Amino acid sequence: MPIMTKLQLQPRLTAIQLCSVPDIQSNLNSINQILAQIPDTIMNTPEHLVVLPECALYFGGKDSSQLEFCEPLHTGFMQDSLAKLAKTYCIYLVAGTIPIKSTNSGKFTASSLLFSPQGQCISHYKKMHLFDVDVADNEKSYRESLLTEPGEAVALTDLEQLQLGQAVCYDLRFPELFR
């Protein structure tokens, strides 16, 4: 009797490094240009996951600027643009941190969003561990909690062949999140 083997497709991961600036449209254009340069032999694999860095759409400005342009979850220019990129390139797209309006007025959440190849937001993770520290640099201290509301729940998403957990930046310093 011949031995049969089942071909298993492995998910493909692309991590995009980007020098984001405090200009959302410029960063979206850069992300689109990078995605367009990835060869079709890589992009057209089933369950292709593309991960963008923290602050992918806005970096270099003050947190108060993010409060000015934060969006309600599932609506707004930033989320619509990311959904369109996911759909255009037929990829799962993890967007680093996007400022999402909080129920607490005067604050936003630093949210990691996962978009499906159909352009749907299928997961929303709010950064849980905020960076509030005193340091020996020109700033002297960082108080992310002044304008950012922490999340309270992990985000696990079952994709076709992959279970994806989301975390952001300082979250990595807390191993209990991953247990």
Distance between the termini: 44 Å
Q: What is the H/E order?
A: EHHEHHEEEEEEE
Q: Which regions are unreliable across 5 or more consecutive residues at pLDDT < 50?
A: 1-8
Number of helices: 4
Average per-residue pLDDT, rounded, comes to 88
**Class per helix and strand makeup:** alpha/beta
Taking the sheet with the most strands, its summary is:
5 strands, mixed
How do the strands of the widest beta sheet line up side by side? 1-2-3-4-5
Shape: globular
Approximately how much beta-strand content do the residues carry?
Answer: 15-25%
**Helix-residue proportion:** 10-25%
How many β strands by DSSP?
9
Radius of gyration: 18 Å
Please provide a written account of the structure.
- The chain is an alpha/beta fold and 179 residues long.
- 21% of the residues lie in helices and 25% in strands.
- It has helices spanning 24-37, 40-43, 63-69, 77-89, and strands at residues 12-15, 48-51, 92-101, 108-115, 121-126, 132-134, 141-143, 156-158, 163-165.
- The strands form 3 sheets. Strands 1-2-3-4-5 form a 5-stranded mixed beta sheet.
- Strand 8 and strand 9 (163-165) form a beta hairpin.
- Helix 1 (24-37) runs parallel beside helix 4 (77-89).
- The termini are far apart.
